[in-house]
Amino acid sequence: MKHKIGFIGAGTMGSGMITNLVKKGFYVKFFNRTFKKIEGAYYTKIEKLEADVFFMCVSNDQAVRELFSKINFKAGNIFVDTSTTSLELTKELKDKCEKKKVKFLDAPITGSKLGSESGNLLFMVGGDKKIFDELNEKFDAMGKKAVYCGKSGNGQRLKHALNLTQSNILQSYLEGIVFSLKQGLELDVILDVMQNSAANNGVGNFKLPYIRKRDFNPHFLLNLMHKDLKLAEKEIKELKLNLPLSKETIKIFDEAMKDKLGDKDFSAIVKLLEEKNKVFIK
Description:
Blueprint: E1 5-8, H1 14-23, E2 28-31, E3 42-43, E4 53-56, H2 61-68, E5 78-81, H3 87-99, E6 103-106, E7 109-110, H4 112-118, E8 121-127, H5 129-134, H6 136-142, E9 143-150, H7 154-182, H8 187-194, H9 202-212, H10 222-238, H11 244-258, H12 270-277
Parallel strand pairs: 1-2, 1-4, 2-3, 4-5, 5-6, 8-9
Antiparallel strand pairs: 6-8, 7-8
Helix pairs in contact: 1-4, 7-10, 7-11, 7-12, 10-11
């Protein structure tokens, strides 16, 4: 079904998502807090957005709450939050949508700026399976896969776990490389072994070429990863879990924020490791 789409948030991720929807023939009107042009899509004020399906992709709970309150929904509309937000906000949105007779899905994304531009995002979706099935074409236009995760909130739960896992993997991978470099091994030799063994991993393979070039322009901002880890930390405490590696990784990101690395790619955590051990990956 070719719904009219209203998209709120045309930033690093949203711009690519909107562009790919347009390429697939969808009619898209969008709003961003700073004006921008996207070929084939139509910019309008949020209060004037009229659509069957609304997607939102913004940075945090505060932004979602503020912009959600300005949307003029009609009964029967669908609202999809692709932002990574707290479980408390997700429940709040679900309850408010129900009162407005609007269908709701939480559908956070992963895949970085490049994945957004190339249409290779992964969606983790919580909510009514019928609504999920109804939106298959839209998810397919923007991503490589949409995984139905179950009840409302499960998309966010899995996204928090995913970013916790990626952060743990990257830190442990970088530590192994630094350990080897400090012993005098060549970086190319280290990576040859790492990438052809069980230590091979997607986040390390993607980040290492940029780290070697000392290119920390953001594919995914460190301050956003830190925000996601703090969401995970809150849930870990509420569940009374003992996750020692995750606890230490969160501390590393806390330190990176104190060192004002928040506007860099989250791979910039390597700077802390390098400075403390006086060895550099380049």
